[in-house]
């Protein structure tokens, strides 16, 4: 059984590969090239990647290309061949065939019929209808909880840096906690949360929207000048994440690709979120813990 230090090292290498893929979607991403980025043999890399991410490297690259293509089709009026070249296809016909196989619609029909706001929502994962149910590696265990509506005092953030919301999130949490203290709300905080209402299409997207907030006991009146939002009550599948926050993206990926397809659950129209024990990152990243809440029917 690998030690905690080995697992952290493996996950750090997988993060490196995720960034490499994101920056090179317009080029060939061959298995041995990705293995070199991670400093693994191709065989070992394939197994480690699938265990961490819930899908093989090949499927991951293909899905990221299709997601980027879907975003461009809805937000960029360039010709389909130009979008095909942006996501690594050499001909429009090969791209159209691949996109239709993946999404069930041709690129032109997708552009004409899919609402942009629907596609951008986090609770609408863009996965192939016949995605293979992956049970390899450690099985993800969800705890199903029914929550009441949660009132959250929040700050809006923009930007994802090096594949993580960590940098912008910690900066925002420092400002939020100062504001909570200033307004006498710090003793009423029940949990700190990160809310992700929209999907992002690049691991270095400086416009990616997220919210950092605090669930505040309703016995503490919140001043009108502070922004608040109510997270909908209802059923949530809850997953624990232990270790550096920088690897939370891998946990999210595995949830959507490894747990959701065979769980029998469907996503509810509510934003997913994370909760943390503290607004600060622990001095020892190995001691960090977070919980991911996925809204389900």
Automatic annotation (TrEMBL):
Keywords, A to Z, come to:
Transcription, Transcription regulation
Q: Please give the start and end residues of each transmembrane region.
A: none
Q: SUPFAM superfamilies recorded for this chain? A: Homeodomain-like (SSF46689), Probable bacterial effector-binding domain (SSF55136)
Q: Record's superkingdom?
A: Bacteria
Q: What residues does the HTH araC/xylS-type domain cover?
A: 15-113
Any idea which GO molecular function terms this record carries?
Answer: DNA-binding transcription factor activity; sequence-specific DNA binding
Return the Pfam families for the record: GyrI-like, HTH_18
**PROSITE patterns documented for this protein:** HTH_ARAC_FAMILY_2
Name of the protein in its database record: AraC family transcriptional regulator
């Amino acid at each position: 059984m690998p030690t905690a230090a080995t697992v952290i090292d493996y996950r750090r290498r997988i993060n490196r590969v995720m960034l490499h893929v994101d920056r090179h979607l317009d080029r060939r991403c061959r298995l041995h090239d990705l293995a070199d980025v991670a400093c693994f043999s191709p065989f070992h890399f394939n197994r480690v990647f699938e265990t961490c991410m819930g899908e093989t490297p090949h499927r991951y690259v293909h899905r990221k290309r299709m997601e980027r293509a879907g975003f461009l089709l809805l937000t960029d009026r360039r010709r389909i061949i130009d979008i095909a070249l942006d996501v690594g296809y050499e001909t429009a016909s090969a791209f159209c065939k691949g996109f239709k196989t993946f999404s069930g619609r041709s690129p032109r029909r997708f552009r004409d019929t899919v609402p942009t706001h629907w596609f951008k929502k986090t609770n609408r994962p863009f996965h192939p209808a016949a995605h293979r149910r992956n049970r390899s590696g450690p099985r993800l265990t969800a705890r199903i909880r029914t929550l009441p509506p949660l009132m959250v005092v929040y700050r809006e953030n923009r930007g994802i840096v090096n594949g993580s919301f960590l940098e912008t999130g910690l900066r925002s949490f420092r400002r939020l906690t100062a504001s909570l203290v200033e307004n006498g709300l710090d003793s009423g905080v029940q949990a700190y949360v990160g809310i992700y209402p929209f999907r992002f299409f690049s691991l270095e997207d400086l416009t990616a929207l997220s919210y950092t907030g605090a669930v505040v006991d309703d016995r503490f009146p919140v001043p009108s000048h502070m922004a608040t939002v109510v997270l909908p009550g209802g059923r949530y599948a809850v997953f624990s994440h232990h270790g550096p926050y920088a690897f939370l993206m891998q946990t999210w990926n595995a949830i959507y690709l490894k747990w959701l397809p065979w769980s029998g659950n469907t996503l509810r129209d509510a934003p997913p979120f994370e909760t943390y024990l503290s607004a600060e990152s622990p001095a020892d990243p190995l001691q960090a813990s977070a919980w991911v809440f996925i809204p389900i029917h």
